[in-house]
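Homework-ish question, so no full write-ups if that breaks the rules, but can someone show me the predicted structure for this set?
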Amino acid sequence: MISYNPKDWITFIFRFHRSDTVRRLFPMIVLISLYSAGIAYLELEIWQLSAKSYVRNISVMHTLLGFVISFLLVFRTNTAYERWWEGRRLWGTLVNNSRNLAMKLAALLHAEAEERDFFRAMIPAYAAALQRHLRSEETRIELFDKLPAGVQQKMDLEKHIPNQIAALLYNRVLLLAEQGKLKAEHLFFLNLELQSFTEVCGACERIKNTPIPYSYSVFIKKFIFFYIMTLPFGYVFSLGYYVIPIVAFIFYVLASLEIIAEEIEEPFGADENDLPLGMISRNIQMHIGELI
Amino acid sequence: MISYNPKDWITFIFRFHRSDTVRRLFPMIVLISLYSAGIAYLELEIWQLSAKSYVRNISVMHTLLGFVISFLLVFRTNTAYERWWEGRRLWGTLVNNSRNLAMKLAALLHAEAEERDFFRAMIPAYAAALQRHLRSEETRIELFDKLPAGVQQKMDLEKHIPNQIAALLYNRVLLLAEQGKLKAEHLFFLNLELQSFTEVCGACERIKNTPIPYSYSVFIKKFIFFYIMTLPFGYVFSLGYYVIPIVAFIFYVLASLEIIAEEIEEPFGADENDLPLGMISRNIQMHIGELI
Amino acid sequence: MISYNPKDWITFIFRFHRSDTVRRLFPMIVLISLYSAGIAYLELEIWQLSAKSYVRNISVMHTLLGFVISFLLVFRTNTAYERWWEGRRLWGTLVNNSRNLAMKLAALLHAEAEERDFFRAMIPAYAAALQRHLRSEETRIELFDKLPAGVQQKMDLEKHIPNQIAALLYNRVLLLAEQGKLKAEHLFFLNLELQSFTEVCGACERIKNTPIPYSYSVFIKKFIFFYIMTLPFGYVFSLGYYVIPIVAFIFYVLASLEIIAEEIEEPFGADENDLPLGMISRNIQMHIGELI
Amino acid sequence: MISYNPKDWITFIFRFHRSDTVRRLFPMIVLISLYSAGIAYLELEIWQLSAKSYVRNISVMHTLLGFVISFLLVFRTNTAYERWWEGRRLWGTLVNNSRNLAMKLAALLHAEAEERDFFRAMIPAYAAALQRHLRSEETRIELFDKLPAGVQQKMDLEKHIPNQIAALLYNRVLLLAEQGKLKAEHLFFLNLELQSFTEVCGACERIKNTPIPYSYSVFIKKFIFFYIMTLPFGYVFSLGYYVIPIVAFIFYVLASLEIIAEEIEEPFGADENDLPLGMISRNIQMHIGELI
Amino acid sequence: MISYNPKDWITFIFRFHRSDTVRRLFPMIVLISLYSAGIAYLELEIWQLSAKSYVRNISVMHTLLGFVISFLLVFRTNTAYERWWEGRRLWGTLVNNSRNLAMKLAALLHAEAEERDFFRAMIPAYAAALQRHLRSEETRIELFDKLPAGVQQKMDLEKHIPNQIAALLYNRVLLLAEQGKLKAEHLFFLNLELQSFTEVCGACERIKNTPIPYSYSVFIKKFIFFYIMTLPFGYVFSLGYYVIPIVAFIFYVLASLEIIAEEIEEPFGADENDLPLGMISRNIQMHIGELI
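A: Not a homework solution, just the prediction itself:
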C-alpha cells in the first residue's frame, strides 16, 4: 500500500506514479488513438461522408447506453471497494483479537513465564503465517525459530499452516485447563478470541478465491470494448480530428475504473493498492511483545 | 464456477465462452435484428415517412425512460449479487465452523480415538449433505459409508438430511457430557459452532426458496420488452438501416444484465456462475482430516 | 407468494397475472390516456399552438426532473425491498432457532417423553401464532388443541399470544432446571434460541407498524401525479397524438414501481407478493416433528 | 408519527396535510415565483435579449449539474432515512429486551412477588425515561410513583435518568444473586438484556447529537440556492413566462427532499414524521404488565 | 465539530464559515476563472473560431462523462461518510461499554471503595488516552495523576497507551477474581465490555491508517482536473464570457465534494467537521463519576 497525503492535489495531478492507471493504460491509449485517427481519416478524407449520413447519429446509442455503462462501473467499483474494505476489517479483527488474547492470557498466566513465552511467539506467528498463506508464498521455517523445539517439529509445512497454529493454540489452552492452570470458566472467557483466528482466515480465503461472477467480468469488458470501438464513428462528424484525444480520454476513464477494481477486489496481493499485510503483521508482533 | 484471470482482457473480449450471454442471447438477437430490419424497411421504403413525422420523436420516450430502466437493472444486479455473495459467505461460515469445531474437539478429546473418528466423518458429511440438499440431488448412501453402522442405520434418506446430521452431532456431544468425557462448561464452548450448522442451512434454504418478488420479475421483463420493441420506430429516422445492429446491441446489454442476475440470484445450482459448492465441500473434508 | 420460474420470459411478457400492475393500473391508464388525448386535441385542433409557442419547451422541466424522479423511485424500491427481505430473514431466523432449540432439547431430554411432547407442540405453535398475530387474524383455539389441558387454559386469547407462548417456553425450561432435569449450565446453552423468538416477533412488529415516513409517501405520489399531468403539454408538439400511448406507458412505469413498493414494504399480509408465512409455519411444524 | 394508508392516492395528492412540504415551503415558493417573474420581465420586456444571446445557454450548466444535485439529494435522503430507521430499530430492540428480561425474570422469580413488582415498574420506566431524555423534557416525578419509596428517593432528577434506572436494575439483580435468589449462572442468562438498555440509550444519543457533517449541510443548501436562483436566466428564452411555475415546481421538488431529510434525520423529536416513542413506551408498559 | 441548527437556511446560504468550502477553494476558483477568461479571450477575440469549428462540440465529451464523474463523487461521498459514521459509532460503543462496565462493577463491588476508585479513574482514562493516541498528541502525564502511584509508575508513555490501560483493567479484574472478590462467573459477565475497549481502539486505528486506495484518490483528482480544464473550450461557443462564472461554479461543486470527503474520511483529527472526541471523553468522565 502507498502512504500518501490525500490533500496534496498538485502531486496527484502531475506526477505519474508507477501504479498510476495513466502509465498502465498507456499502450492501449496509443492504440485507441491510432484507431480513432484511422476512422477519422477514412470518414473525413476517403469516404467524405456527408453531414446527412446516418453514421453521424450512431452517437445516440452512446448517449442511451451512457447510463448503463456508468452504472455498471459504479457497481464494479462498489463491490471491489467493499471487498477491499472487508479484507482490511478482517485484518483489523486479527489485530484486536491478538491483542485481547494476549492481554487476557497475560493477566491469567502472570506467574507462568514459560507459557507466556509460548503465546508471545505463537499469536503473532498466526498473522505472519496467514499473510504468507494468502500470498501463496512459502512459509519460511525461521518463522517458527523462536518456538520450543517441540512445536517446530510438529509443523507440517505442506499442510494448511494457519490451521495448524490455531490448533496448537487450542491445544495449549485446553492443556492448561487440564493442568488446572486455567479454570473451566476461563475457557469460555478466551473462546471468542480463539475462534476468531480461524474465522478471519476463512473469510480472507473466501475473498481471495471468489472473484465477482465470471459473467459480469466478461460482460463489462466486452461492453467497454464495443462502446469505445464504436465511439469514433458518430463523433467524427461533430469533432473532426479532435475525436482522437476525446475517445482516448473516455477510454482512459472507463478502463481505469475497471482496472482499479480488478486490482483491489483481491486485496491480499502485493499490488500497490493492496493491503499492507506485512506492516500489520509486524505491528501485531510489536504490540504482543509489549503485552504478554 | 469458472476460474479465470480477471486481467486477461483479450480472452474476455474475443472468446465466446459457453456461458457467455452473447451465445445465450444469440437467437433472440437475430430475431430482434430481423424485427428492426422489418420496421426500417416499412418506414423507409413502404411508408416513406417524412422527417417531419411525429414518429421520429418517439425516441424522447426512450431517453426519458433510459434513467428508469438503468436504475432498475442496477437494482436487479445489486440484489442478485448480494444474494450470491451472501450464499458464498454462508459457505465460508460453514468452512470456519467446521474447522473450529474440529480443532476444539481434537483438543478436548485427544485421548478418545473413536470419538474423533466419529466427528472426522460427520463434520464434513454436513457440508456434503447440504450441497446435495440445495441441489435437490439424491443423497447417496455411500456418503455415510465410513460411519459406524449404528449411525448409518439411523439416517432416513426421505427426511431432511442436514437436520439429521446436526441432530447426531448434538446428541453425541451431549452424550459425551453425560459420560463425563466433556464437562458442562465445554458445552458452552462448543455451542456457537454446533448452532451455526443449522443457521447456515436455514439461510441457504431462504436464498434458494425466495426469488425476488414476482411483481419485479414480471415488471422488469415487460419493461425491457416494450422498450426494445418500440426502439426502432423513432431511431430509424436518424439511423436508417444502422438501426439494426444498434437496437440489437442495446438489447444485448439490457437483456444480459437481466439474464446474469437470474442466474446468480440462486447461487447454489450447477450453472457456470454458481458457487463451487463441490470444491468447498472437498476442502472441508481435507482440512478436517488434517485437524482431528 | 407466487412460485415462478424466472427464466420463462414468454409467460412473463404476454400473460397478465392477477397481481400484474398492468391489470391493477388499467383504469388509471385509461383515464390518463383520455386526459392526454384531451390535451392533444386542445393544443392541435382548438388552440392550434404554433411550433414556436413556449408551451413546447415545458418538456425541459421533465428532462431536468427525470433524474430526481428516477432516484426517488429507486430509493423507494430499495427501502421496500430491504424491508421485504428483512422480513424474510426474520422468518428464516425463526426456522433456524426452532430447529436448533428442538435438536438441543431432544438431545438433553432424550429420556423425558412428556417434556418432548410439550416442546414438539409449543415450538411450532410460536410460528403459527406469530403468523396470525402479524395478519391480525384471530388465533384459533385449535392451535393449542394438542397441548396438555393445563397449557390450554392458561392462554388468554385477548392478550399478546406470541409473548404468552414464549413465556411458557421460558417457564418450562426453568422448571426443568429447578427439577434438576436440566443443569444450570444448560440454561445458557439454550439462551440464544429462547431469546430469539421474542426478537423475531418484535422485529416483525416493527416492520409492520412503521411504514416509510409519511412525508416521503405523500411527496412521491404528488410528484408522480404532477409529473404525468404536465407531461402531455410539451410533448404534444413533438409527438402529436402519439403522446397518448407514450404518456400512458410512462405513467405505467412510474406508478408500477410505486405500487409494487407499497405492496412489498409490509411483507406479512396476504398479497400476492407477500411472504409465504403459512408455508414456512407448516415447514417448521414438519421439521420439528422429525427432530424432537 | 402519522398513521396512514399508503394505498390511498387521492387523499395523498389533493389533501395538504399540516406537515406537507407544499404548505411549509409555500412562502418560499411565492418568493421564488416573484423572483422568476422579475427575471422574465427584465429579459423579455426591458432588455429584450435576442435569442442569440449567450444568456440563453446558461441552461447547459443546469443540465450538467442536474446529475450532481440529484445524487446529492439521494445521498441526503438515504442517510437521513437510515438514521430514522436505525432509531426505529433501536426502540424495537428496547421492546424486545424489555419483554425478554420480563419473561426471564418472571420464570426465575415466580415465587417472589415483591421482586416482580419492582421489575414490573422499573423495566417500562426505562423506556419512558429514555423518551423524556431524548426529547429533553423534564422527567416527571410521577414516573416513579409506583416504585417503593426507597427507589424514589435514590433518583437524582438532575443527573442522567436512564443511567440511574439501568444501575438500579443491575444492583437489584446482583443483590438477588448475593441473596441466593438467583444463581451465579443466571447472571449470565440475564446479561445481554441488562446490557442492551444502555446500548440503546447510547445509540439514540449518538443519532440525536450527531447531525450529518456541517460542511455537507452547508454545501447542499448553498448548491440548491444558487441552482434555483440561476435557473430562470437561461430558461426564460425557451419558456417565456411559463418559467414562473416551472422554476417554482423544481424548487418545490429539490427543497422538499432537503426539508424532509432535515426532519427525519433526528427521529426522536415530536415532528409529524418522528418516531412514535410515546406509543412504543405505552406498549412496553402494557406488555410487561402482562408478562411479569 | 460544529454544532448547528440544520433548519436555519439563511445563515447557511449567506454566511461563509471558516470551514466553508467556498473560502477554502477561493484561490483555486480565482485561478480557474482567469484560465477560463484566457481561453474565452483566445477563442473569441484572437482565433475568432467560427461557430462551425469542431472545437464547439468538445462539450459532447463533458455530457457523456458527466454521469461518470457524478457517480465517482457519490462513491467518494458515500465511502467517506460511512467512515465518519463508523468512527462515530465506535465512540458511541466506547460510551456504552464504559457505562455498562461501570454499572456492573459498581453493583459487584459495592463494598470495595478502593477498587471503585481505581475503576472510576481508569475507565474514563481509556477514552482520553485513545483520543490523544488517534490525534498523535503526546499523552500528558497528568492524565494519570489521580491514579494510585503504583499505576502511574507502570505506564510507559513511549508505548501504546490505550493497550496498557486495557491490560491494567484486565489485570485488576482477574486479580479481584483471584482474591475472591469476584467469582469466576463474573469474569464472563464482564468479558464483552473488557474486550470492546481494544476492539474500538483497533477499529479507530484501522480507519485512521487506511485511506481509500491510492489509485482512486489519484484518479478522481486527475479526472476532475482534466474535466474542468477542458470545459471552457467547448462552452465558450454557447456561453461567451459567461463561461467564466459557470466553469468556476462547476469547479466549486465538484471540488467541494472531493474536499469535504477528504476531510471527513479521517474523522478523528481536529478539523471542523471531525468528531467531537474531546466532548465525548468528558461526557464519559462525568457519567462514570455518577455511576461508580
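Now go work out the reasoning yourself. Hint: The mean pLDDT of chain E is 87.
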